[in-house]
Amino acid sequence: MTVWQADFYKRPLRNLEGKVLWELFICNIIGELVYQALSPQSDVNVEWLVTQLQVATAKTGFPDAIQVFRPQSLTLFASAGQKLGIKVEATRRTLALKQKLQERALQYPQENNYSGENYHPIALDKPPPLPLSENLWGDRWRFAAIGAGDMEAAFCDRAIPIFQMPEEFLPLNLSLPSTVAIPGVVIDGGRKSMVLARWLAEVQPVALNYIPGAPDGLILEAGLVDRWVVATFEDREVAAAARIYQERQEWSQGLHFLLVQPDDSGMTYTGFWLLKSGD
Predict the structure, then answer these.
(1) Do 138 and 190 form a contact (C-beta atoms < 8 A)?
(2) Which of 76, 84, 23, 78 has its CA nearest to residue 53?
């Protein structure tokens, strides 16, 4: 399967007429350059992008998918992909692309058309976290943990309607010792268990992080830049458990899980997501 990772956005560059330049940058999942091109901001549109993608595919063939992490360019790629019959996937996990963009940013100051403006190649504006709708609230929630060596056996053979355990996140593939505790959050959804799980599948969870404050909170990172308040709390014992939860993520390379179930009987699971912070 051939996957490209692509970005198309303004850069700290200007042409001879002083117009801001946008750069199309495409690499594969191991960071090899596939194609790049510059366009004045005034010429940026779907037709221009389609033409450039046609040039790129003429050289290398069509990819099975193009991964995009930047919301501002997603619409352009989605429209161009539809015209060319290429699947476009919105995902934060474009690690090779983000690394190449950071390397590319170091080159701009050396170019004659460098504008000198502040530029952060992979930074995205994130909206404030939104509260969950009342129709999604479960009965209760709690912190949990499971040994890295037990992760697959505990969940892979279960009939879980909504299940996401990416192969690249498996503890074995991250070279995690089997004794490392993988932290997680378990939500007993009761009658709303399936409604909550389906909503989570729709928003595409990325990470679930503890954020200290007044009150403390659990913030769900989802989609490209979306954020949701899963829970808030002021109880000292819960806050202590939350700190342990976040500390365990440091030992697990950011790996953690979210489990939704109807109740705490352990008989039935509704949804499971293996997540990873820091990507």
Answers:
(1) yes
(2) 84
Cβ–Cβ < 8 Å for 194, 261: no
The pLDDT value recorded for residue 207 is: 97
Record the tokens describing residue 52, joined without a space. 């450039």
Contacts of 157 (CB under 8 A, 6+ apart): none
Phi, psi dihedrals of residue 210, rounded to the nearest 5°: -85, 130
Residue 264 is given by DSSP the state T
Cβ(201)–Cβ(271) under 8 Å? Answer: yes
All structural domains of the chain with their residue ranges: 3-110, 130-276
Task: Provide φ and ψ at 51, rounded to 5°.
Answer: -60, -45
Cβ–Cβ < 8 Å for 206, 257:
no
Q: Tell me how long the chain is.
A: 279
Token readout for 62 is 């069509």
pTM to 2 decimals? 0.88
Here the tokens at position 259 are 């489990």
Q: 3-110: which CATH topology? A: Nucleotidyltransferase; domain 5 (3.30.420)
Give me the residues of the chain with pLDDT under 70, please.
Answer: 279
Helices 46-60 and 71-84, packing angle to 10 deg: 60
In a 3-state reduction of DSSP, which class is residue 159?
A: coil
pLDDT of residue 138: 85
